[in-house]
Write a structure and sequence with these properties.
By secondary structure, the protein is α+β, with helices and mostly antiparallel strands. It has 4 domains: about 5-205, no CATH class; about 230-520, no CATH class; about 540-570; about 585-685, no CATH class. It is about 55% helix and about 15% strand. The chain is built from 23 helices and 19 strands. The strands form 5 sheets. A 7-stranded antiparallel sheet has the order 7-9-12-8-2-17-16. It has a 4-stranded antiparallel sheet with strand order 3-15-18-19, covered by helices on one side. β10 (about 340) and β11 (about 345-350) form a beta hairpin. The protein starts with 7 loop residues before the first helix and ends with a helix. The model is unreliable at about 1-5, about 170-180, about 205-225 and about 565-570 (pLDDT under 50).
């Protein structure tokens, strides 16, 4: 009698189980890799182990690692761990994560005994927990769902696998048919996954939480492209290639105008290679009443020569509390304990945290009012390091004659017209990068343009400073918010004139990009999902829980009063506004429906080929008979024998059914295995 592991049923279930276990470990690992905290060597080593295991399971390669090599590798990693902790990663948690990845690779490649299976599942669970600690992105939900899917598959197939063992031990054979077992297990897994997601979604709504604990545990963990108060020449190039969203702005009135500058920090000291602010002056603490501060004087608030804006900013770009503001702020509302004004009319919320910064601003889009500057400040904004003397001559040559403002405008125009903005120019690692930019390269990032103009203005006696922040962004019509990406980080110049005050200059050539077309629309949906994730997952706390409950209560009450949904709830308008999403969902549903039918047809064809080749058992005859009934389009009553049923079918197919029934009886009750092969051949030739 053949042992249980050689039966078709057990082979099918065990193969499914092994692939599900591999998927469980792989999804946990890739959730961890998606956080960006794993080094290249760890990702490459673990990915190679997972790929190798998949090749072995597919039957394309056979190998076995000696137990002695496994023990040697384990001892070697124990010795390597303190080296990793002290000198490589420098972090206990990250070093431990590296160890978990190493253990996952070893278990995947060498786990053979039944006792290895619980350890492998535990490793996958630890990977997922580590990814949950390190991840703040919505992509984690995808890996979580995959882990849950594979976990359900592992547990269901593992139970069937153990049941087959017990069945063989008791009766010495496996009586269950092998037909469709893989498909049925997969269906059960998907249904279980949907149920688990529904339950966890309900718990998510009921249980508030916050990421403050994670910020305390990992204060140095970078979740998003940061914003620095120091600008090295060549630094913005890397940021400008990063398209991740770093701020979302919601306008409470009309849409915000395009090409706005979101002012962050001002930098006054230049040492020839970088801009920075020297020892910071004592900040001015601005008093707030219920979180609202009146930050403009009465003269500014009484102006009628511009457009007033009211907007909310959700920013993840500032880890030091810097606030990014468009226009001249008049009122600020923040949730932070303190609001301070720093040099250069920049604003900061203290104390800074690793959580998103939210604030509301009422501002005026207009030229600032003239204001004097002290002699000490004037000297600070005119100071220059030792630079190439040709820059002074170039400034005089470009500016020509006229007022200081006219001469400054000419310098801005020459930089915009004669120089090229590019992201592909490498940082200029030379003694004087500014001279190299002006006289040799003539192309670079925005900080080269801003630095060149600020230095030239100072050489003409115009106090100037470099301003860093963001520019433009794009309006997401899906979420109704303006999105600032890391690639929108920008640097420009402010110059001071006695009769005008601080005037804004931007010598960088225009690089506006639009979000249009199918990919642009898809990016809007992805960004809207990310915004919801940040608001309702990362920052979900008791206050948001109460807000959600209040909205739900208002919706229910409105429906009870009128007997129908609220007036502002228009399903057709919602469908029209999100037609692309609806079409994508319908297309996906149709694709899944067609894929299921195609899979069934293909699997049946493959199974018939296998049976025709002689790999069959008497149990396969029952499935062949069921397939014949489907082709005929008839159902055989339980109290009618196959022979009696054969003479009741239509005359057009009766001869074939009678012959098929004779072969079926020979296969099931006549002890002739070759009849199963003949049945399969008859079905394959059936017209």
């Amino acid at each position: 009698m053949a042992p249980v592991h050689r039966t078709p049923v057990y082979r099918s279930v065990d193969r499914y189980f092994q692939f599900a276990l591999l998927g469980l470990v792989a999804s946990g690992f890739f959730a961890l890799a998606n956080t960006g905290r794993l080094d290249t060597a760890t990702i490459a080593f673990t990915s190679a182990a997972l790929l190798l295991r998949a090749i072995v399971l597919a039957g394309w390669l056979r190998f076995e690692i000696p137990q002695g090599a496994v023990i040697a590798a384990a001892v070697g990693y124990i010795l390597f761990y303190p080296v990793d902790f002290l000198w490589i990663s420098g972090d206990f948690f990250i070093a431990t994560v590296h160890g978990v990845c190493f253990l996952a690779a070893v278990k995947v490649l060498t786990g053979r005994a039944e006792r290895d299976l619980p350890y492998t599942c535990l490793v996958a669970f630890v990977e997922l927990v580590a990814a949950a600690f390190l991840s703040w992105q919505p992509g984690f939900v995808i890996w979580l769902a995959l882990c849950m899917l594979f976990a359900v598959a592992v547990f269901t197939s593992g139970e069937i696998r153990r049941s087959l063992h017990r069945s063989f031990d008791i009766v010495g054979r496996v009586a269950a048919p092998s037909s469709g077992v893989t498909w049925r297990l997969a269906t059960v897994s998907v249904i279980s996954l949907v149920a688990m997601l529904a339950v966890t979604g309900g718990l998510f709504i009921l249980v508030p939480r916050t990421v403050r604990a994670a910020a305390i545990l990992f204060p140095g963990a970078a979740r998003m492209t940061g914003f620095s108060g120091v600008v090295d020449l060549g630094n913005f190039g890397a940021i400008a290639k990063d398209d991740r969203a770093v701020a979302h702005i919601l306008s409470y009135g009309r849409p915000l105008p395009p090409d706005m500058k979101w002012r962050g920090s001002t930098l006054s000291r230049f040492d020839g290679r970088r801009w920075f602010e020297p020892i910071p002056m004592q900040p001015e603490v601005v008093p707030t009443v219920d979180g609202t501060a009146e930050v403009a004087k009465e003269l500014q608030r009484s102006r009628r020569d511009g457009r007033r804006l009211l907007y909310r900013v959700d920013s993840t770009a500032s880890t030091n509390g810097t606030m990014f503001i468009a226009g001249i702020p008049e009122y600020l509302r923040i949730t932070a304990p303190r609001l301070v004004r720093r040099a250069g009319n920049t604003w900061q919320a203290l104390p800074p945290t690793n959580e998103a910064l939210r604030y509301e601003v009422s501002s005026l889009l207009a030229a600032p009012l003239p204001e004097p500057i002290a002699e000490r400040e004037r000297a600070r904004y005119l100071a220059l390091p030792v630079i190439d003397s040709r820059i002074f001559m170039l400034a005089r040559d470009w500016s020509g004659d006229g007022t200081l403002l006219e001469r400054s405008m000419r310098i801005q125009e020459r930089l915009r017209r004669d120089f090229l903005y590019t992201l592909n120019s490498p940082p200029l690692r030379v003694r004087d990068p500014l001279a190299r930019f002006l006289f040799e390269e003539k192309k670079g990032y925005c900080e080269y343009f801003a630095s060149a103009m600020a230095v030239m203005l100072r050489s003409l006696g115009v106090p100037s400073r470099v301003v860093t922040g963001f520019q433009s962004g794009y309006f997401n019509s899906v979420s109704g918010m303006t999105v600032l990406r890391a690639s929108d980080a920008h640097a420009w110049v402010e110059g001071w004139f006695p009769d005008r005050g601080w005037v804004t200059f931007d010598p960088t050539p225009s690089t506006l990009a639009s979000e249009s077309g199918l990919m642009g629309r898809l990016n809007m949906y992805l960004d809207a999902a990310d915004s919801i994730w940040q608001q309702w997952v990362v920052a979900y706390d008791l206050g948001r829980q109460a807000t959600l409950a209040a909205k739900l209560e208002a919706f229910i009450r409105s429906g009870r009063r009128t007997g129908k949904p609220p007036r502002d709830f228009d399903p057709m308008a919602m469908l029209r506004a999100n037609w692309l999403l609806v079409a994508a969902v319908l297309a996906l549903a149709l694709l899944l429906w067609k894929a299921k039918a195609a899979y069934r047809k293909a699997s049946t064809w493959v199974w018939l080929r296998r049976v025709s080749g002689g790999t069959a058992s008497p149990h396969d005859a029952a499935r062949l008979y069921e397939l014949m009934l489907k082709k005929v389009g008839r159902i055989r009553p339980a109290d009618v024998t196959p022979a009696d049923f054969a003479v009741t079918v239509p005359e057009t197919v009766r001869p074939q059914v009678v012959e098929f029934t004779e072969r079926y009886n020979e296969a099931r009750f006549g002890g002739r295995p070759q009849a199963v092969v003949e049945l399969a051949e008859m079905l394959r030739r059936w017209a």
